[in-house]
Write a structure and sequence with these properties.
The protein has 351 residues and is α/β, with parallel strands linked by helices. It contains 13 helices and eleven strands. The radius of gyration is 20 Å and the shape is globular. The chain binds flavin mononucleotide.
């Protein structure tokens, strides 16, 4: 269906953590590289696509967020902004930086971004946080773009199938990054990957890709044994040199700090998994936050100051629960190892 040699997807990373180099390394090795483009302008997506096309002739995936804002009218009240400032004041004081201005109103970028996707025609267009309109899906079909939508519950998988989406990414609770629920509250969508894959396979005919907690061949073989058609591997590729993560981010994921991850809203306003730190511990998820993505804008100067001052306990390092088993830091080596281990597992099962 995809024209790829191995059932291995490299999970796309939003927030400018993807790179054309990583996408090309994975696609050239026979998997499906993925680029997370939801924070890019349409022009930037065109440029990234050119970079990818220059580096690989193989199929690849570009990823967007269907719902990319929770802010009513794109903004928040002064009162809410003051409340959030008061709550986060100690961190701004400690890093000795002023509060940013109230974030400018945010307007969804999805519609404009998707127009570029339709023009540049990646083999796969994957998306999270919702389902694109019937018109967009029809345009994808006409252009031969395969669609892949993320589900965190069985209901979401059924909704994706009913909309005619080609592939369902079963996104388990273990995964690094945001929890992309779109039908019920994220807090009601905490199913792990292996349960989710089985629930979806019982009721849905669309091919399922298992995502979350898979970082080696045993994980891929296990997911496929449970009925997944492929596995999407994220955190294991994020620590590779080719990703756009800061070197300290990659080092933290490979250190003992990776033993404890958590789901926090503190950095963006939506629940996402990363390494537990002082701010995630002290704020909890009932703290006052700005709606996504205004909270990200609010926190960005604090994050930069914390990085500059090497206050690592205030920087959120995105990553999944599987990080402590990671070994490879070169994408081609990781691919080779995933392919060999998966094949070895299946040979052992047959023997
Ligand atoms: C830093 C980070 C950013 C991510 N951003 C996105 C994104 O923008 N869109 C998306 O579909 N998935 C995103 N993901 C999820 C991955 O594509 C993948 O599904 C997930 O990492 C798989 O779980 P694992 O981390 O346990 O391997 C992100 C994951 C991480 C770690």
């Amino acid at each position: 269906m995809l024209g790829i040699e191995y059932p291995i997807f490299q999970g796309p990373f939003g927030g400018r953590l993807s790179s054309a180099e990583l996408v090309a390394a994975v696609s050239n090795a026979g998997g499906l590289g993925g680029y997370g483009a939801y924070t890019l302008t349409p022009q930037e997506i065109i440029e990234v696509d050119q970079e990818i096309k220059a580096a690989t002739a193989k199929p690849y995936n570009i990823n967007l967020w269907v719902s990319d804002t929770d802010a009513t009218n794109g903004t928040v009240t002064e009162a809410r902004y003051e409340e959030v400032k008061a709550f986060f004041r100690p961190y701004f004081e400690e890093t000795n930086i002023p509060f940013p201005e109230k974030p400018a109103p945010f307007k969804s970028r999805f519609e404009n971004q998707v127009e570029v996707i339709l023009d540049v025609r990646p083999k796969v267009f994957s998306f999270v946080f919702g389902i694109p309109s019937a018109d967009i899906l029809e345009q994808c079909r006409k252009r031969g773009i395969i669609t892949a939508g993320a589900a965190t519950t069985l209901d979401e998988a059924i909704a994706l199938e009913n909309a005619g989406i080609d592939l369902i990414i079963a996104s388990g609770f273990e995964a690094g990054g945001h929890r992309p629920s779109f039908l019920s509250a994220t807090e009601l969508s905490f199913t792990g990957t292996f349960v989710l894959v089985q629930l979806i396979r019982e009721k849905v005919k669309t091919p399922v890709i298992a995502a979350g907690g898979i970082a080696n061949g045993k994980g891929i073989a296990a997911a496929m044994t449970l009925g997944a058609s492929a596995a999407q591997v994220g955190t294991a590729f994020l620590v590779c040199d080719e990703s756009n993560a800061l070197p300290v981010h990659r080092q933290m994921l490979l250190s003992d700090a990776a033993k404890y991850t958590t789901l926090s809203k503190a950095y963006t306003g939506r629940l996402g998994r990363g390494l537990a730190n002082r701010i995630t511990r002290e704020t909890g998820n009932e703290a006052p936050y700005l709606p996504f993505p205004l909270q990200s804008t609010f926190m960005s100067s604090l994050r930069s100051a914390a990085v500059q001052q090497q206050k690592w306990d205030m920087v959120y390092f995105w990553g999944g629960q599987i990080a402590p088993v990671l070994k490879h830091t070169k994408a081609s080596k990781l691919m080779q190892s995933l392919i060999e281990e998966t094949s070895a597992c299946f040979s052992e099962l047959k023997a």
